[in-house]
Amino acid sequence: MRLPTLLLAAAASADQFDLRKLEIHRDGDRLRYSYGDKDVSPWHDVPFWADADQTLVHFVCEIPRLTRSKLEIHKSVEGNKLVQDTKGPHPRFYKYSAAVVNYGAISQTWEDPAVADEHTGVGGDNDPIDVLQLNAAPCARGAVQRVRVLGALALVDGGETDWKLLVVDADDSSTSAWRTVDDIPRDRVAEARDWYRLYKTAEGKGENEYGMGGRAIDGDEALRVAVGTHDLWRDWVDGKAKCDFDGEACWK
């Protein structure tokens, strides 16, 4: 366990963590993060909460809207750099279409495969909880934003729970009036719901499914789900659970 990083994570509460000090560096086709003079993990060292009142969370942009290249937080690479996803030796891109939302993850979360979700009845997908950021402007790849959780969709992918939080950039005035899931234009939710149900069909796979008939839960319940995955992440960091990826232990 990397004691310095976890000390940073513990010390950097929402009112102490200064997002302006977080820097992103390109190492070839990978993105690496630093805070001050220390290399840090976007998964473990950026606090879950993004404000002192615990109403906002931190979102890491992995796949900007209108792009196809699949960069993801790599769970077993040192520092959890953002890495181009591959299938064998080949980089992976969305075949179905370019992304219709800004996609990424919430820091300090984990969906545990060994814990059945109360909404779907099946375990998690072994990843940080996913985010569908609904602002029109594409996020910068690798950028970390403060976001407001408005709702969530309970996607079930390959028999695993793969929550999709519906969020907006808290610092974008264009969506400042969106405070609940009912404030999101219905066609925007429908577009995202349908895209993530169908996108793997372009790879010759079946459609994904949704728990609760595809109904979006409200912001309070969605934030409770997110906090639950933050608790599961903490259990793993504390050695109470096990995380492996591609035959290697997840890096922490």
UniProtKB/TrEMBL annotation:
Its cofactor is Mg(2+). It is an enzyme of class 3 (hydrolase). One of its GO terms (cellular component) is cytoplasm. The keyword Lipid biosynthesis does not apply. Its EC number is 3.6.1.1. It holds the Pfam family Pyrophosphatase. Keywords: Hydrolase, Magnesium, Metal-binding. The keyword Iron-sulfur does not apply. GO terms for molecular function: inorganic diphosphate phosphatase activity; magnesium ion binding. It comes from the Eukaryota. PANTHER family: INORGANIC PYROPHOSPHATASE (PTHR10286). Belongs to the PPase family. This is inorganic diphosphatase. It comes from Pelagomonas calceolata.
